[in-house]
Fold this protein.
Amino acid sequence: MTRWTLCWVLVFGGVAACDSGLPKEYQIDRLRVLGIQAEPPEVGPGDTVALTALVVDPDERPLTLSWSACVLSERGTGPFGGGGETGEGGGGGYGISDAGSCLELNQIDESLVMDLGQGEGATLTIPEDFLSDWTHTARAYGLSKDKPLPEAARQGVTDIAGVNMVVTLVVQTGDETLVAIKRVNVSTASEKNLNPVNSAFHLTGVKDKQDAPVTAAPPGDGSCLTEEHGGLLSLTVGKHFLTALNVPEEPVEYPVLTIGSTVDAVDVLQTQETYYYSVFSTAGDFNEKIFKSGGTRRVKWTLTEKDVGEARLWVVTRDGRGGTTWCEQTVDVTAAP
Amino acid sequence: MRQARSSIGGYLTIMAVLLMGPPVLAETPPITPPKLVTFAKASLPEGTALALGARVQVIVWVTIGTDGTVTEVSLKDGAGEPFDQAAMDAAKRCVFSPARSGEEPIPVKVPFRYAFEGPSKRGAIIANRRGRRALHPVPGQSLAGQVLEKGTRTPLAGILVEVLDPRSKRRFEALTDSNGRFTARGLPPGRLLLLIDTGEHRAIRKKVRVESRGEDAPPTAVEPVYLDPVGLGRYRTEIQDRRVAEAASEVVLTEEELTQVAGTFGDPTRVVATLPGVARSAFGLGYYAVRGANYDNTGFFIDGHPVFFLYHLLGGPGVVHPELIGSLNFYPGGYPVKYGRFGGGAIVLKTKEPPDDRWHLDVEIDLLKSSLLFSVPFDEGRGQFTASLRRSYYELILPLFTDDVKLSYTDYQLRLKYAVTDALTLRLLSLGAEDALEFSRPSEGTGTDTSGGFEIGFHRVLLGADWDITPTLRWTNSSIIEHDRLSSTRAAQGESDIDYSPSVWVAQHLSFVEWDANETLKVEAGVDVLHAAVDGTYQVPTPPPLGDPPPPTFNPIPVKGTFNEELLSAATYVQADWTVLPGLRLLPGARGTADTYGGITHYTADPKLGIRYEFLPGWTAKGLLGLAHQLPNEFQVGEPYGDPTLRPMEAIQSSLGLEWANDDGWDISVEGFYNHLSYIPYLAGELAAEEGDIDRIFWRWDEEGRAYGVEVLIRKRMGGRFHGWLSYTLSRAERRRPGRDWNLFRVDQTHVLNLAWTVRLGADWSLGARFTLSNGNPVYPIVGSRYDADRDRYQPIFSTQQTRLPFYHRLDLRLDKRWRFDTWMLEVYLDVQNAYNAANAEGFNYSYDYGKRVPGASIPILPTLGVRGVF
């Protein structure tokens, strides 16, 4: 059955949009920002954050990275937040013309933006009064600046949810510009989030039917793959499983503030951290672009004859609450024997 | 020459009375033809004579009013003077019992034949010895039979049956009665010829053998004679459909119009998409934005009660078998106040009466489903029973393409009607549907299998009683009990299950009185009480936590709960149809409703005034002004994210227009409209700090809307070789929220053109076409993107200026062929949607960074082949 036959069968049923030959997100064939790390990802007022970015360019051109920070309206805080082509932005308290990055906010009111300079990294120091100044919380959550919450209620918000300082990275080379954002959560929580550590991955052929280990020593040099337990560092064409290792046996539990999960209820729920692994490569196809720490923790990577040669692999690990880390690996792909 | 005289009995030829198109289906609604009550003889001028045995025939058109009197006579086929004038003068003096559509008298135009015969050897009047005349019974044998229409088995009334004795060349005549039966008397025994030649059917010439029997013996019986309509005579729509409009602005569609429009797959409710004021809906789904209102502002009613679930899933057909739908009234605004609770238009379906004189079976098979419908009268026609069942077979087809989607649907209807007395009729209608959709997304061994399903179903029982208290006063009671259910589930490895499964019990009672006060005033008043109780369970995602970015993939934090809501809605209404002056009708109405939900009672009043003024014959000015309210739906007011304080939406509706109609079946309507909508609910998802606490506002209801435009409808009604309509709407629909300017409504389509036309090609072939041309919907173009490093996803950057998707254009074709056999018919049809495979984009598909886009999916060329047997 052809792709298009399935398409109109499903679309006639309104089931899903179909593959239309558009580029796949995991394929690295152009300048991309794959991740931004804030170390630490969650801080308190007055703390300092180190910012770095994973930027890849297959053409290896010189890049200029510019950093800034500001407070933006949260997007997606509503049940169906976000703008759309057919209607003005709704949900999340923002409109279609609201700024979505510090670059855009700077054009509205540059006094609201902190310039962090240029370079491969940057440093952000959170103002001491960041949380005590109601205007930041009001802007972040679309609340009235003139009606601050009582101190007790504000404390509840800052203890659990905090307020995000949004970092904006502008990557420029030639006439090409990319804009990326990253949230740094500022809270008064006693236990703050940390970036994931001990990132390691195991690669094996599907036909080998070899189980991946649960843990292994991380490579330590920023690479992804471990040779422990028969892990591969070079591959032949075919199908492979890439499995995430060192997933905490007991996921970290932490409170979240949802508000209004039922009418008139303010809910503080306990939830567990989940790790999300985004894969990118210069070769091959993945059956999914993001896989999670739940379940088998693995993704299928298929390489064909056209992929023979050197392939680069990146895996960015996120904990779903701002924590980020990544690894990079070069692998040799050889033809089938 | 001897004195000519008209025949003793006028020859009344009445073509089958059809409101619903040609009697192609035995299930055509019961149209009772007019019956001659008083025959007026045609008098020729003194001295006019015909030769012995000569016969002159004059056929005139006679228009019979609702009171049975002849309102107009014109010549159809003349024989010259003085016969033509004599026939026309006499026809004017005839009196009939009026034709009826169900119970309602309707005006009709029928051909009426006068035959002038010269003297013959038989039938002489013998004067007795006392000078008084006496009629002697005609001696001889009798022959009895029945005349039916071929294929439909519809009895044909008023058919002239001749019996010819080939030996003596004598002719004997009889007329069929309302059951199609005839008895020819005074016949000689032996081999005779049965002759029927109506001019609209293939002539019958059949040998019969009349037996010699005693005086009191029953007549010789012959087998039924089946007449095959030919030429345009098979399209017997001499009925002038001038049924009285129930509202200022109304379009009424009849059976063939509902089931044979190309591109609708025979689904009556989808035909509404071709009418003026209706925006084109994506993918041909049958939900409509009418005159700028939202999709859910147009109500669907079946036999007076609202329908909550009208279509099967994924673009499937309507849930009611098309053959059960007798008529469809479309009100783009200002619908009669007896229907309520919707802020836009109304689509009112009425189920059809099956034949009361014979059983009927309808079997249909197409590429996607099969259906069966059976009806049978009982107790000498006092009662009728109908049952239908339809079932899809996607389970057989989809596996040829994918194992990831499963779909099935079923619907059924049972209908029972019984006339307990001439004045009291009881009705029972049971209908229901069940749909199931399952999808799965295997992970190819990576342990992230995802599956889910969506089920929806409803089951309704309606009990009704119609009591004609007096000839001018009718009291109708109608109650429904209904169970609706919906189940939406999702399961994925490593994630919490999602389950949203409300169940609703609905009870509604309608009780209303219709009073024909006099010829100029009709009044209807009634009450409408509806109760709905929602229960069930849910486990759904909470809103995204504050401070945390939305996760890279769907990973819900679930919240569990149970539904427990009730709605009580009680309304009372009164409406009138008042002919103030000849041609000037006022249609006032008022409805008051009390709706209680979430512990809050909302009171609304819906006054309406429609005016229709026929200021010249065939020319009518029309206007309406009214108010309509609509409750928020259960999702908007119930748990977990509803807001019971939402108030009903309000719509001010107005229109002004002109209609023209002629006797040849042409109608033209031009109508301007302006609607204003207030308190439109929409998803807000905002946070608010109120009274010292932080809360979430899921819904707001401060959006307003406006729509204005002009609608044109040029229509050729059923009859003759072709029928159809051209509709064009020029309009603008907008929305505005506090603090913002007016913006185009997401389904605003400045120009919408529909041409739906059916041509009868002869020999029971018909070809239909439908062409649609409309603006694309407004969109905010995506002009860039930014990368969200926490979500690993790009956010689109929208332009603040709207533009439009490309123009939409599509041609649908339908070809029908029917074969008539004596007692059944076979129909084959080919319905092709998007015949020239136009690539109309319903939107765009974007690359992950919104840097590239391709047109989104649209309906490609989609043929359906169907076969149908009608018995």
Remarks:
- Residues 26 and 280 of chain A are 4 Å apart (CA to CA).
- The longest helix of chain A spans residues 3-12.
- Confidence is low (pLDDT under 50) at residues 1-17, 77-81, 89-93 of chain A.
